[in-house]
Design brief:
With 294 residues, this protein is an all-alpha fold. The protein is built from 13 helices and no strands.
């Protein structure tokens, strides 16, 4: 993958800058003044429901990371425990408060500390150095894709709220969150790039990472059909489905380049595009059934 040379020191400096320059959003600065709450809920309610839940599941995500990446580097720990985690926690509170101001019920995130058997198995295998490095790369690739998708979603929501004249929540809630997502994406991208540039993985490990990614690609916070339909609501209601192939290409660009999927003639990995299309279709099916039952 072409790009600037990345070192562990540069990544640590990036994380420290994020912590210094972008503390968690001050909850007291949010202005929930609404011109037309009914219209905002009708347009963004489904997307907001999913985004709120995912942002509020940070506690469980941190626990899973501690199991999946034993002996994690100080830079990784600093990022997810001291920078990313606190920022995401405030993002969830801001969105949940907004949802309640729109008349939506309080979010019910899955923060159950009981880990899935798959996580426990991977955590046990992660004590083996050769497996640990593969899991670490997959963690970075998943993070990069997740944060890129979040950047697109918040940008689309910001534009939509601006068009509606909802400047208070646009500026003090959505934009306040949006400005912190690129730093998260940069951390994951730089970390994955540094691993490959430094030769941390042998060719067979990269092949294994590509194989596992193609067989286990999933949308963050979308483990069940209902949750995947929720994610589809984000795609449909924020207009991200309109040019889905291009958007998915941008979302998974880091892994496409690092895992050499382009060698197979694919600009967009089939497994990623299929997951996004399936989510959008599930949402449309659910919406259609709801309308027919009404």
């Amino acid at each position: 993958m072409s790009g600037p040379h990345v070192t562990a020191t540069k990544i640590l400096e990036h994380v420290r800058r994020l912590g210094d320059r972008q503390p968690p959003v001050d909850l007291g600065t949010a202005d929930y003044t609404l011109a037309d709450a009914t219209a905002v809920r009708a347009r963004f309610g489904d997307a907001l429901e999913y985004m709120t839940r995912v942002e509020m599941e940070v506690e469980r995500n941190v626990l899973e990371l501690a199991v999946l990446l034993p002996g994690v580097s100080e830079t990784d720990r600093l990022f997810y425990a001291d920078v990313w985690g606190p920022q995401e926690e405030h993002h969830g509170i801001l969105l949940d408060t907004l949802g309640q101001r729109l008349g939506m019920p309080a979010a019910e995130p899955d923060i159950n500390p009981v880990l899935a058997p798959r996580i426990r198995v991977l955590g046990a295998l992660a004590h083996l150095p050769v497996v640990h490095e593969v899991i670490r790369l997959l963690y970075y690739l998943t993070g990069a894709a997740t944060e890129k998708a979040a950047m697109m979603a918040y940008q689309a929501m910001s534009v939509g709220l601006g068009d509606m004249g909802e400047t208070a929540i646009k500026n003090t809630v959505v934009d306040a969150i949006k400005i912190q997502e690129p730093g998260h994406f940069a951390f994951y991208r730089l970390s994955a790039l540094e691993m490959v540039q430094a030769g941390a993985l042998a060719p067979w490990q990269l092949y294994l990472a590509r194989f596992l990614r193609s067989r286990n690609f999933s949308l963050v916070g979308a483990k069940t059909p209902d949750q995947r339909a929720q994610f589809g609501g984000v795609l449909v209601n924020l207009g991200l489905e309109d040019d889905l192939e291009r958007n998915v290409r941008d979302i998974v660009r880091v892994e496409t380049q690092l895992l050499s999927a382009q060698d197979q003639g694919m600009e967009v990995p089939d497994y990623a595009l299929a997951a996004f299309r399936d989510a959008a279709e599930l949402y449309r099916d659910r919406t259609s059934r709801t309308m027919q039952a009404a």
